[in-house]
Amino acid sequence: xxxxxxxxxxxxxxxxxxxxxxxxxxxxxxxxxxxxxxxxxxxxxxxxxxxxxxxxxxxxxxxxxxxxxxxxxxxxxxxxxxxxxxxxxxxxxxxxxxxxxxxxxxxxxxxxxxxxxxxxxxxxxxxxxxxxxxxxxxxxxxxxxxxxxxxxxxxxxxxxxxxxxxxxxxxxxxxxxxxxxxxxxxxxxxxxxxxxxxxxxxxxxxxxxxxxxxxxxxxxxxxxxxxxxxxxxxxxxxxxxxxxxxxxxxxxxxxxxxxxxxxxxxxxxxxxxxxxxxxxxxxxxxxxxxxxxxxxxxxxxxxxxxxxxxxxxxxxxxxxxxxxxxxxxxxxxx
Length: 334
Description:
The protein has helices at 2-15, 19-35, 39-47, 51-54, 58-70, 74-93, 97-100, 103-123, 127-140, 149-164, 171-184, 188-204, 208-226, 231-246, 250-260, 270-286, 290-307, 310-326, 330-333. By secondary structure, the chain is mainly alpha-helical.
């Protein structure tokens, strides 16, 4: 109810051209909007604020940067983070810093900035730097946002980073605690990511039944928030397709691929692209359609070029070699 009053007040301030008042109110609830998945609302408000005004509100700049990062526009996101970093360094070096921004607000801004920088490494698939940034953020003990959105996302991403090094100690207990925290604080958007990332861990551990439950939970939440054919739903949808293939449920895998693969770009993580394109190629190969499989990998190549996903590239190379061997084209494999 209080959030609704804020949104109405922000709308009226923007309509009246009172951009500073609108920006002040918006940065009070921006993290709550993100946590609840109301990203379109936040984007719409930010887009209506003139650039020269927006520069005075670094919290909103960080929200805008995260929108770029989440949509895989890494260069634009990095540039915006750099500008906020420079702003913060100027404030910290100022002798009149308390009159510009309190020490507590500086710490909150720094924590939010370093969270966004960590997310840039995570979404762009730099796992080594991601893990180091997560650990550094937690050690710094920054002020928490009202929904614990930033704190929980750091913990979720850290678990995923450790999983990539096959460090799988106490994953079930940690995942359960994080799930409860996300639900309690209504961090619906983050819960979709958490279910997907933990589902990948469960698949790696061989618990495909529980992984399927997690992916289906993520799809249900994504559909509630953005619809069945949304990009958000494609993340668990393609991970589920890969799981169906692994369990020899090929018809279900095809349905999931056909439903989600066209909507799988510019939101989520590289794992969904790996799951989607490699599974689609293998479904073609299962029917001896090797050219169709190779064409699928060619489609996947463009995402490596556009977004620099090296892990996707390695999976494509390995699958292409496998296809050449299966089709009798041994000389092309090496």
